[in-house]
Amino acid sequence: MDTDASFGEMASYRSDNGLDFITLSSTRQSLTIDMVERADDLWLVELLEGDLTVTAGPDVLRVREGDIVFGHADMLARLEFPRDHRILLVQIPAAYFTQRVRNHLPAGVSLIASDTGSGRILSGMLRAVGDTVNDLSGDRLRPVELSLPDFLLTALMEGAPSKSLGGSAGARAMLLERVFQSIEMHLSDPHLNLEQVATRHGISMRYLQKLFETVGDSFGHYVKLRRLERCRMDLISPLHAQKTISEILFQWGFNDSASFSRAFREQYGISPRDYRKAPPAAASAEAPRRGSPVPEQRNDRSEIDDEPLPDPSDEEDADPATPGIGQIRHHFLPATVETVRWGHLSRHIKPVLRVRSGDYVTIETLTHHAADDHERMIEGDVEIERIYHWAPGDKTIDRRGAGPMDASTLGRGAGEGFGVHILTGPIAIAGAKPGDIVEVRFLEISARPSGNAKYAGRSFGSNVAAYWGFHYNDMLTEPKPREVVTIFEVETGRDRSCAHALYNYRYTPQVDPDGVLHERYDYPGVPIDQASIIKNFEVLQGVEIPVRPHFGFVALAPAYDGLVDTVPPGDFGGNIDNWRLGPGGSIFLPVNVAEGLLSLGDPHASQGDSELCGTAIECAMSSVIQIVLHPRGTQRNTLRDLDYPLIETRDEWVILGFAQPHYLRELGSKAQSEVYKNSSIEAAMRDAFRKARRFLMTTRSLSEDEAISLLSVGVDFGITQVANGNWGAHAIIRKALFSS
């Protein structure tokens, strides 16, 4: 690739499969794509910002922002940029497509529009890669590499004339591509067979075999190769480091470990066990780098740190100036007496784990409502029993809240209950400092099963219609007011993912083991005297609640010297209670103190917008997360000027507003009591509006008038919660609004 004189910046990353992802930001210039030495390879360019004209032979293509240009390396292409611009260039080895793409690709240079069909999805996916190239890792790119052939080929065929696909062969190629996609979606089914796929596409088994013959393959051979490739990628993924080889092979449809091992060795020349220990050099990944790409320099694949809980005093971290470079590790952080705290945040708490940018963590979190049904949610689970232990004069975790230890204000118990959540952490992020942003990506979340053998394999949660709920002083039937606890069973199997109510009971005054009377549900962990309640098993019959697992509480430590109550959220994060913070979502949090100090808790099986009665379905959860540091000065467009929590999903940005976003700073020495007195939906809505307006003006370059109009006609505002002392509202900005 030759360039004229210009000014700009280049960053690149080479993936496990040898794909080069290169971003280039520059002033006006012309480029020639000349890959003579890689003549069998392919390339694509997405225009992220600016204008572009591509000339290849007699073809001249006008490219809009978001559009993608695709070509073969043996064809010279001239790229003209008349003004400042930013692009993503992907160089694709021919071998990468060999296994997956059996159809003939269109000849010449093709334009994939970003406003319709598969082109829209492909454009969004590659834009995300281009925006985060400096934070890439092999595991983050793996889903992109798996789906890229499908989306690319489908987008090319949607926009290509049948002549370029071989005349009448174009229709067969499109059908075969749909067959490939169908197989990919059902690889984990061990019973997948020729008849099923033929029936799904309305063709005969004989014709389906003929389609495979046109690309020199057979149905059975193709399925086996795709399953082997999925197993190979899982074997080196930190996300699956806890799984045995047998678990991985069974997950992808193999039903015999011996035949799998033989097939794996035949395909890759190494046994699965040896491959997991030391993959061949061809599978190694390279850390992101700045400057011109250097194709011959390759780093070894990152190793997984298998220590169950790294020593928090171990300071052997990567250079803070280059977060994300070095080994990517997978940590396990269990919920134990040593790794949790109850009801408070503080910048002065010693971290229980230190991670580098890009590290994965399997983290356990517990619910502070487990005592609502001791038999189902505490009994038999040794660690939860330890954490909840409370006998007369003997409480394992005495401080429960951010209030006084002597219970001098209300006499409820140590900590006074001003703060109720059991938090796991804090986790220190190497190199994080004020002005940076920490991203927490939620990859998997699963309910913790009961430790009671009587309920083996089953999970449970609690919902409390409590005195702090929005409904409490607005009830119709007697007795009023009242507090009601509903116990749910949470099912999260492959074929069923719902919660259903088992029973409910009215909360009655409880005397805790230290002799204190609790007239209301006002102190965390008070054991419920089963003899004092009446269980109603005829509740919500025939109702199934979709499971939407998420964390209610995710926070970095605020810049505040004292203990911080976990109930009111703020611009440091905290008790956000937005159900969109689940698998596939990320939250971005501004760093307030050195190393960030990340804490998670308040796990929910499901919740509606508003958390109206006071709680969600509170249920212990475990999660696989990835923690990524975005230092100041390297933050991508959507993170500019971000001083509040931002949720991002595949399709949306969720802007979080609070009635009093800066209450710790603005309400003085009594902030943690004053914040409860002044919450309103109007104030939360106004904060969400102001942040959303700023987000559109800053990240999308809209004028104020444009932003206000768009907020009214294209953005959905909602009530996040009216339960946490500092009420919340949110604005949902759909990414599809900007597809063109």
TrEMBL record:
<keyword id="KW-0805">Transcription regulation</keyword>
<dbReference type="InterPro" id="IPR004304">
    <property type="entry name" value="FmdA_AmdA"/>
</dbReference>
<dbReference type="Pfam" id="PF12833">
    <property type="entry name" value="HTH_18"/>
</dbReference>
<feature type="region of interest" description="Disordered">
    <location>
        <begin position="274"/>
        <end position="324"/>
    </location>
</feature>
<feature type="compositionally biased region" description="Acidic residues">
    <location>
        <begin position="303"/>
        <end position="319"/>
    </location>
</feature>
<dbReference type="Pfam" id="PF03069">
    <property type="entry name" value="FmdA_AmdA"/>
</dbReference>
<dbReference type="InterPro" id="IPR018060">
    <property type="entry name" value="HTH_AraC"/>
</dbReference>
<protein>
    <submittedName>
        <fullName>Acetamidase/formamidase family protein</fullName>
    </submittedName>
</protein>
<keyword id="KW-0804">Transcription</keyword>
<keyword id="KW-0238">DNA-binding</keyword>
<dbReference type="InterPro" id="IPR009057">
    <property type="entry name" value="Homeodomain-like_sf"/>
</dbReference>
<feature type="domain" description="HTH araC/xylS-type">
    <location>
        <begin position="177"/>
        <end position="278"/>
    </location>
</feature>
<dbReference type="InterPro" id="IPR020449">
    <property type="entry name" value="Tscrpt_reg_AraC-type_HTH"/>
</dbReference>
